[in-house]
Amino acid sequence: MAAELLTVTSAGQAVETLKAGCVDVGFFAIDPARGVDTAFTGPYVQIEGSYLGREAGAKYLAAFVEEMKASGFVAEALRRHAI
User: Fold this and answer.
1) Contact status, residue 58 vs residue 51, Cβ threshold 8 Å
2) pLDDT greater than 70 at residue 83
3) Torsion angle defined by CA atoms of residues 40, 43, 47 and 51, in that order, rounded to the nearest 10 degrees
């Protein structure tokens, strides 16, 4: 079976192309709004991300991330997406 690649310029366009039946598969981030009519597989790749900013901003961001972890928000997001 030969594959044909179709390039789009945005995630929204990728979703619409999939919904319209123009493609059989698409690669984009899981979004609860997209999950209404799109089936997602498990992740095919996991990446490590980081933030870059000035020292004051980095301290604020680090505190925010820890607050989100402590609140259970991160765990709930992971559970919702079966990660």
Assistant:
1) yes
2) no
3) 30
Q: Do the Cβ atoms of 58 and 41 come closer than 8 Å?
A: no
- Tell me phi and psi for residue 47, to 5 degrees: -115, 155
For 18-82, give the secondary structure using H, E and C: HHCCCCCCCCCCCCCCHHHCCCCCCCCCCCCCCCCCCHHHHHHHHHHHHHHHHHCHHHHHHHHCC
pLDDT digits (tens, 9 = 90+) for 45-82: 777 877 677 777 778 878 887 888 888 877 777 777 76
